[in-house]
Amino acid sequence: MSSLDQHQHLHPSCPDKTTVSSDSSDTRELAKEPLQGLKLASHAVLEKAKERGRLICSKCGGSRMFFCYTCCSLLGVSHQEIPVIKLPVKIDIIKHPNESDGKSTAIHAKILAPSDVNIYTYPCIPDYEKNKVVLVFPGPGAVSVLDMIQCLHDMTDSRSHGSGEPCIKRLKREEETGATHTADSPGSGTPDESKGLQSRAYPLQRVVFIDSTWNQTNKISTDERLQDILRVELKTRKTCFWRSQRGKPDTYLATIEAIYYFLKDFHKHCLAQEYNGEYDNLLFFYSYLHSVVNKSKQKKKDLLENEKEEKAV
After folding, report:
1. Are 197 and 227 a contacting pair, CB within 8 Å?
2. How far is 287 from 38, CA to CA, in rounded Å?
3. In terms of Cα–Cα distance, which of 289, 285, 275, 238 is closest to 1?
4. d(CA 206, CA 151)
5. 24, 27, 60, 100: which has the highest count of C-beta atoms within 10 A?
């Protein structure tokens, strides 16, 4: 989705924390809800790598911090020192050709979940089985994660029996009549019912995300190869990206945020399991860089305030 700056140029001091700190009111509302309390691996390895400074990638010759976003390889840290996450579904990321590799958070997902994440550069789009794939992208026909699995089942049934009622229309009709999806409520029912709910999640095999600035998404989102794929929207989530895009709402997420929040909702609503931080480490790099950028901003703000006070005296 939205992109990140090449924030590796920032190197202010940052103490080792397993969650993002909020040392002041300014460092701040961005971190209070989305990144506080995450179950993360220690950032000590990133602190040490930052102290050593940027390194030259042996493959492409680029100067990088932590990883080479061009070659998708680690620099200054080893695979044994960073978390590796197993995901419940495969993730495909369609990257806009004009999106800078150095400004994309898609690489975070590929490095941290290498066996479950693939990145394709548009116009390369794999052939998908439409009833086994969803596209996480907002729009008029998008459904929630809670309704997603039922919609996939309905798509399969409609293709098998020739039914033509779109999923979004059926959902609206059920809302009007007061119908509810009680089976989609995690933690309810017997163990056998929960097991049955888990089996309902497996029509979904792959989740597609678009990686680009929001002003560039139209070319990919309107591609005919993606038009018959069910769209899912994360309406209740807000970005904590430190450089928001002008004119866009705070519900427009960075790619790694969208992947994380989707999987968290999928775990609770579709697998019917209590969430205990299983995918928090997808934000391993993002949360650290978030704290680095915020501390740098706070430091600059403090310097300006000190200068004003000195002038006033």
Report:
1. no
2. 9
3. 238
4. 15
5. 27
Cα–Cα nearest to 258, from 229, 234, 241: 234
Residue 118's SS3 state is strand
Nearest alpha-carbon partner for 15 in 312, 297, 311, 292: 292
pLDDT of 307 reads 74
Q: Which residue has the higher pLDDT, 26 or 119?
A: 119
Give the burial string for 169-191 (b: 16+ CB within 10 Å, else e): ebbeeeeeeeeeeeebebeeeee
Kindly tell me the burial class for residue 113, based on how many C-beta atoms sit within 10 Å of its own C-beta (0-12, 13-18, 19 or more).
buried
- Residue 162 structure tokens: 């020739």
Model-wide pTM > 0.85: no
Given a contact cutoff of 8 angstroms between Cβ atoms, the answer to whether 55 and 63 are in contact is: yes
210, β-bridge pairs:
94
Mention every residue, 6+ apart, whose C-beta is less than 8 A from residue 69: 101, 102, 104, 107
Question: Which residues is 143 bridged to in the sheet?
Answer: 232
Band of pLDDT at residue 12, cut at 50, 70 and 90: very low
Neighbour count for residue 29 (Cβ, 10 Å): 11
| CB contact set of 159 (below 8 Å; sequence gap of 6+) | 131
Do 217 and 136 contact (CB within 8 A), yes or no? no
